[in-house]
C-alpha cells in the first residue's frame, strides 16, 4: 500500500470534480475546490473520518469493496480505478470482477439523465449503480450480497418476491424472461465459473427453474413496458429501454413515463423525495 501516493491521488481527484458532475448544487458560498470530504463520504457510503484519514495517509488498507465505492463516487475512468487499486495494495479487478463495478461512462450517463430513472446492471442482473430518480421509483437495489445480488436468484428462491406481481400468468412471464436472458449470458460466457455456479445453485434450489431451464429458451431483454405501483403516488406506466455496452458485460435500463398521468406522478415523486417515505416499497406490474 502506497499511502502517500494514494492520499495525494484521492485528494487531487476530489478537488478536480465539479459538484454538478455528481448532482450537487454549486452554491455561491462554496469555497472548496471540487467536492467536500463529507460529500465524497456520502456518495461512497463511508464515514467522513475515514475519508480524512485516507487523504492524510493514516488509514488502514481499504478493502476492494470500499475502493469500488470510491471509484464510483469520484467518477473514475477504468484506468483511474485500476491505478487506485494498485496504490491501495490490491490487484485491479480481473475481467469477471470488473463487471461488478459500473463503467465510468455509464456512471456519468446516470448523472446526465437527471430526473429520468436509470440504473446500471451487470449481465447477470446485479444492480451496480442507480441515480436518485431510480431509487425513488424502485427502491435501493444495491444492498444485496452473495447470490441475492442477482434478481434471477431472488425471484426463484425467495417466494416473497412474487407478491409484487398480480397473478400466476405474470409470474410465468417473468420467470421465463429471466431464464431466457440468463441463457443468453451462458452463451456469451461459456465456461465462466461464476455463471456455472449460479446455475447450479438455482437448479438445486428451484424446481420451477429446472423446468424452464430445460426448455432452452433464449431472449435478450431490450425493451419492455411495466407499471410501477408506488405506495405513495400510485401506478406509473413506464417504458423500459435497455442499452448494452459493446462487450455486453453491462447494461443501462432507462425508465420513461409512457403517458401524461405517469409523467405527473413521477414529477410529484421527484419533488417529494425519499426522506418522507422510508418504508415505501414499490410494486412492479407488467402490462399485458
Strand order of the largest sheet: 2-1-5-4-3-6
Structural class: alpha+beta
- Report the principal-axis shape: globular
Q: Please identify, by name, the CATH architecture of the largest domain.
A: 2-Layer Sandwich
Distance between the termini: 55 Å
Helix content: 40-55%
Quaternary structure type:
single chain
Q: Domain count, please report it.
A: 2
> What percent strand?
5-15%
Radius of gyration: 20 Å
Describe this structure in a few short sentences:
The chain is of the alpha+beta class and 288 residues long.
Q: How does this structure look, described?
A:
The chain has 13 helices and 6 strands. With 288 residues, the chain is of the alpha+beta class. The protein has 2 domains: 3-93, 434 Repressor (Amino-terminal Domain) (Orthogonal Bundle); 104-286, Beta-Lactamase, CATH 3.30.450. The chain has a 6-stranded antiparallel beta sheet with strand order 2-1-5-4-3-6, with helices on both faces. A hairpin with a 4-residue loop joins strand 1 (118-122) and strand 2 (127-130). Helix 2 (37-44) crosses helix 3. The radius of gyration is 20 Å and the shape is globular. Residues 275-288 have low confidence and may be disordered.
Amino acid at each position: 500500500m502506497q499511502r502517500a501516493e494514494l492520499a495525494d491521488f484521492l485528494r487531487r481527484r476530489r478537488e478536480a470534480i465539479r459538484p454538478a458532475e455528481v448532482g450537487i448544487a454549486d452554491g455561491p458560498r462554496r469555497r472548496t475546490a471540487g467536492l467536500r470530504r463529507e460529500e465524497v463520504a456520502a456518495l461512497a457510503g463511508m464515514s467522513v473520518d475515514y475519508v480524512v484519514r485516507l487523504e492524510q495517509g493514516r488509514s488502514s488498507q481499504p478493502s476492494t469493496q470500499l475502493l469500488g465505492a470510491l471509484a464510483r463516487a469520484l467518477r473514475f475512468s477504468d484506468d483511474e480505478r485500476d491505478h487506485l487499486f494498485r496504490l491501495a495494495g490490491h490487484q485491479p479487478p480481473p475481467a469477471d470482477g470488473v463487471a461488478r463495478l459500473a463503467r465510468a461512462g455509464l456512471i456519468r450517463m446516470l448523472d446526465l439523465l437527471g430526473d429520468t430513472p436509470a440504473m446500471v446492471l451487470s449481465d447477470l442482473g446485479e444492480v451496480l449503480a442507480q441515480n436518485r430518480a431510480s431509487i425513488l421509483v424502485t427502491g435501493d437495489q444495491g444492498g444485496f450480497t452473495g447470490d441475492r445480488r442477482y434478481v434471477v436468484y431472488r425471484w426463484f428462491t425467495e417466494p416473497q418476491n412474487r407478491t409484487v406481481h398480480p397473478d400466476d400468468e405474470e409470474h410465468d412471464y417473468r420467470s421465463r424472461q429471466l431464464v431466457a436472458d440468463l441463457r443468453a449470458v451462458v452463451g456469451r460466457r461459456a465456461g465462466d465459473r461464476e455463471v456455472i455456479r449460479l446455475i447450479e445453485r438455482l437448479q438445486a434450489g428451484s424446481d420451477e427453474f429446472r423446468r424452464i431451464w430445460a426448455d432452452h429458451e433464449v431472449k435478450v431483454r431490450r425493451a419492455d413496458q411495466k407499471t410501477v405501483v408506488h405506495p405513495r403516488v400510485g401506478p406509473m406506466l413506464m417504458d423500459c429501454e435497455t442499452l448494452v455496452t459493446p462487450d455486453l458485460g453491462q447494461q443501462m435500463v432507462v425508465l420513461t413515463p409512457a403517458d401524461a398521468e405517469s409523467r405527473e406522478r413521477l414529477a410529484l415523486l421527484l419533488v417529494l423525495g425519499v426522506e418522507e417515505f422510508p418504508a415505501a416499497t414499490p410494486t412492479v406490474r407488467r402490462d399485458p
